[in-house]
Amino acid sequence: MSEETGLIEWASNTIPMKSLIVESRTKDIITYHKLVAKEGNQRKRVDLYKKYILNSSYTLPPQFYSNFNHSFPIPHHQIKARENYSKSMAVMSMVGSIIGLGDRHLENILLNTKDGNIVHIDFDMLFWKGEILPVPETVPFRLTTNMIDCFGPQAENGLFLDMCTVVLKTLRHNQSVIISLTDSMLQNPFIDWANNESSASQIPEKPIPRFKRILSGIDKLGRVVSERSQAEQLINDAKSVDNLGSMFQGWLPYI
């Protein structure tokens, strides 16, 4: 909620995604950090990212699915866990993009090792505050190669996309309730946003108008699009090499 107030809940049977993916990638991470750490120009950061990915893709294959399978060795449990993973990823990806949830690095996304569901933690970076960081966040949610690795043969175009569409339909149907609750949150003095006018003034678009626009299905060109088209655009934005290359190196956009 802010740096001084918050709620704590124990997330049982969970493990950070970072521990499932990053442990064997220390050398690659150091190499990438050295490559981009001192580069402040966004365009040059993107170019360096593309160069690194093109040169390293054969040494950086996704490995999350392999580690995921170790948690669910029984075949039918594995299938159900992968379904839970895809559905929970879709829910949090769409909801997160609607409320402007940022800071989705690999320690803020957990895997439930009992059922395969994804659990998100640390919701301080709400309402697109990530857009005013020293290195602005440019993706609507985390959908890197490792996150896609567990979706199955159709990757992000299968169950994940179908569920994203369902979630957006549900959110649109309940937009009046969502906007009302969000407006109440923004007026709450315990919420960091309410006490930080300078931060709020730097956001290109105020939260409530932005909620209304997104929940109405209005795209960047001002067109009203279907839920599926909206989901596809958000997925494309999350996968965009230009967007990922612009992210802070500690977010590990290549993993």
3D structure, described in words:
The chain is mainly α and 255 residues long. Helix content is 51%, strand content 4%. It has two domains: 23-59; 62-185 and 202-243, Phosphatidylinositol 3-/4-kinase, catalytic domain (Phosphatidylinositol 3-kinase Catalytic Subunit, Chain A, Domain 5), CATH 1.10.1070. A hairpin with a 5-residue loop joins strand 2 (109-112) and strand 3. Helix 5 crosses helix 7, helix 7 (159-173) packs across helix 11 (227-239) and helix 8 (175-187) runs antiparallel to helix 10. The longest helix has 25 residues, at 75-99. The mean pLDDT is 80. Its main location: nucleus.
Q: Largest sheet at a glance?
A: 3 strands, antiparallel
Number of domains: 2
CATH class of the largest domain: Mainly Alpha
Alpha carbon gyration radius = 18 Å
Fraction of residues in β-strands: under 5%
Mean pLDDT: 80
Summarize this structure briefly.
The protein has 255 residues and is mainly alpha-helical. 51% of the residues lie in helices and 4% in strands.
Helix and strand layout, with pairings?
Elements: E1 14-16, H1 17-21, H2 26-36, H3 42-56, H4 64-71, H5 75-99, E2 109-112, E3 118-120, H6 145-148, H7 159-173, H8 175-187, H9 197-202, H10 207-215, H11 227-239, H12 241-245
Antiparallel strand pairs: 1-2, 2-3
Features:
mainly alpha, Phosphatidylinositol 3-kinase Catalytic Subunit, Chain A, Domain 5, 2 domains, 51% helix, globular, 12 helices, 255 residues, three-stranded antiparallel sheet, single chain
